[in-house]
Each structure stands twice: as structure tokens, then as C-alpha cells.
């Protein structure tokens, strides 16, 4: 600690059961206090260090008992200077109504030691129709501290235009009370970390001059911590996408008799892909590995953001364009079809359909030799292409979708407040998807170049690292663009 270091105290206050402790957990990124759906869960003020600077400065967050009977509390605070009021407040209430006494003590502590107050309001209620809000504004004025009004319980994230309409009614209320210096949408369940930067900026504006330098250092410590989490998150997503991009699964080749039965079956029945069962197996293997990668990356994002819980399995729809099948010209198929087309093996069809491959009943020596010739041509073609094995991998279109899904997953985690409980991936708001799609579209050519390089890479750790290194700046730039578009006034510089 240096001689110029300082401590800044922020206090959360609100009507009871509005979500102060929930918000405190989200800000602190750890569980504190008790969260229940009942009044007066928090009975005593509790302090917790929110952030510290290397110079020894500390930002302390206080969680206080909620206002229950706000009108009664206001009267008691106003009467405290009188003898009877002092007796009721310090003696009688302490014995007869401890929660009420704790609320009074908390307010006196705020007045004596807090630098700024964060008043948490229930945004789902209309301020003009909620009687206690006006009374609690008078309590805030009694405190004599600068107040920032935080709108909690906003519901799922919405676009800025819709949010602005709801914000205006609270700003109208705040304009009538000089103690309220700013109104900020800040939902404990769904705030994004960049909005915390806006909150800290507003707090710094209302602090006394003597604490400005210390708080600037605290804001820098906050910024460095969160950018470190952002960068690690981008590395996690880049690695996940790289592993998926280079992932391949070989198709287990049938023996000659099996191929012949499948091919002739196609001719006789008009069936589909000769090895559809094998392709289905391969696709399932790839999908299982993809799901494991997605869950592992999501779990790491959850950990990095100070959340708890495990990622659930991702449901993958089997769409045709998801898979890219690269197979050599089938030499065995060429040998049989070459003979059939020449007419030399006309008697072979019945034999194959019966399940045998004896080259009897009409198979001529010339036809067999012709078939072997076709087989040799096919193998030479495969050798020239450098491809001896059939493989299945994810298609470029599907990898584009995975890139967008990775950004959406990051947004979901970055908005999930710890006070909400264990992480659960819910439905994302439509404007997120629109913003992500726009960011991905501008980088489509870059991504296709990466996927093309990945197609020629072996599925090993060194190639995954190389591909991840190429993807990292693309993922990072995309995520920064998305956050900037969603929060143009909040996105901090790195």
C-alpha cells in the first residue's frame, strides 16, 4: 500500500427483495450472503472487496438490509435527533423489531462512511405506481450521498431502442431528486461485463476530488482483469473451432464382396448412398466429438467468468450440408462397373445379387481382365490425387455456423450474472443473432481461407494450435465488433 492509496466504499440499497444480494454476487463473481424470495433476507450490512489495485487501493461493496416499511423507516431516521426518537431507534426497536433496527443502523452507516450509493430499483414495476419508491427517494436524500439508480429485473437483454423507452420513465423520476446523479440499466441476471465499466465510470464522476486518482487506478485494474478474461475466452473459442475444423473420420471400406452387394443393390432397388450406414456412423462420431468440444469450451468460459455449473449437451441437427465427404475414386467399384459396362461380365449381376463373387455363369476371361484394367486406372488416379482413404469432415458452411455459434455462446456466458445461480444456456435475443451474423458475414472470405487450409491438415495437436493461431485474431475482432455494436457507449478500450 502506498501513501496515496485509498479506499472507496459503495453501498447497495433498495426495497426488500428487489435483488441487492443477487447483484452483489454478480459484481463480486462469488457467492455472498443469502438469496431467498422473502423479505429481510439480509439483516446486517456486509462488506466485500470488489477490486484492488497494485498500489493498494480497494473498492469495497456493501450489501445492506432492504427497506421494508419505508415510511416508518423514514420517520424513525428523521426523529433520531429527538430524545424519544433516539430511545425508540436505539433501544426499543433493537429489542422489539430487530430487522427494522438493522435497517436503521445500515442507513446511518451509509451516511457516515459510504462514498456513493447504488439504489437498486425493480424495473418491472412502474415507478409512478409504486408508492414506496417516492418515500425511499426521501431516505436517499436524508443520506446526503450521491446516488446512481440501477434498474434491475429488466428481463432478457433487449435492443437499445426498446430499453431506452423504459429508461425514460425512471429518468423522469430521478430528475426530481438532486441526489440521483445517473440512471443505468443493470440487470443482475443479464448484465454484460462491459456495462460494469459504465457503472464504474459513473461512480468516478460523483466521487470527491481526493479519491479520483485512487479510483482511476481501480478502474484500470478492473479493465485489465476483464480484458484478460476476454482474451482467454477468445483463445478458448479459437482452439475449439480449430479442433473442429481439422477433425476428420475415415470411412471403413467394405471388402470387395460387400461393395459389390451394395452397388448392385443400388442398381436393382434404386437405393441411395451405397454406404449410408457407414456414413451415418462416421457422422455420429464427428458429432459426438463436436459436442464434447463445445461443452468443454463452454465449461472453460463459465470458469473464466467466475460462474458455476456445467455446460449441457448441445443438440445437433443432422443437416446434409454439415458434412464434407472426400473419397477417392473407388477402385473396386471401378473394376466391377468397368466390366459391367463393357458387357463382358453380363452374367455377374445375378451372382452378385445372390451374395457371391465367384466370377462364374457368363463371366468371360476378357471381361475379368478388363475389369482389373479399370481397377488399375482408378488406383493410379487416386495416387495422383494423393488420396488413398475416404474421409468425412465438417463442411465449410457448417464451420461458418459453428463460428457464429461460438460468438453467441460467448455472449450468453458474458451476460450471465453469478447471482442467477448455476449457468444455464437459454434462448438468445434476436438482435444478438443479427449482430453476430453481420460480424461473421464481413469475415466470410477470411474464414473460408482458414477452412481450406484446415482441410489439408492432419488432426493432431500441432495443426490444431497452428489453425487456432490463425483463427484467434478473427474471433477476437468479431467479438469486439459484436460487443461494440451491442454496447456502443460501454465498450472499453484494451
In words, what does this structure look like?
- The structure is a single chain.
- The strands form 2 sheets. Strands 2-3-1-4-5-6 form a 6-stranded mixed beta sheet, sandwiched between helices.
- A hairpin with a 5-residue loop joins β2 and β3.
- The longest helix has about 35 residues, at about 210-245.
- The protein is elongated.
- It is built from 17 helices and 9 strands.
- It is α/β, with parallel strands linked by helices.
- The protein folds into 2 domains: about 5-190, Rossmann fold (3-Layer(aba) Sandwich), CATH 3.40.50.300; about 230-485, no CATH class.
- Helix content is about 55%, strand content about 10%.
- Residues about 35-40, about 315-320 and about 330-385 have low confidence and may be disordered.
Report the total helices. 17
Can you tell me the overall shape?
elongated
Give the rounded overall mean pLDDT. 79
How do the strands line up in the largest sheet? 2-3-1-4-5-6
- Taking Cα atoms only, what radius of gyration do you get, to the nearest Å? 33 Å
Largest sheet entry? 6 strands, mixed
* Structural class by SSE content: alpha/beta
What's the total number of strands? 9
Helix content: 55-70%
Number of folding domains?
2
Strand content: 5-15%
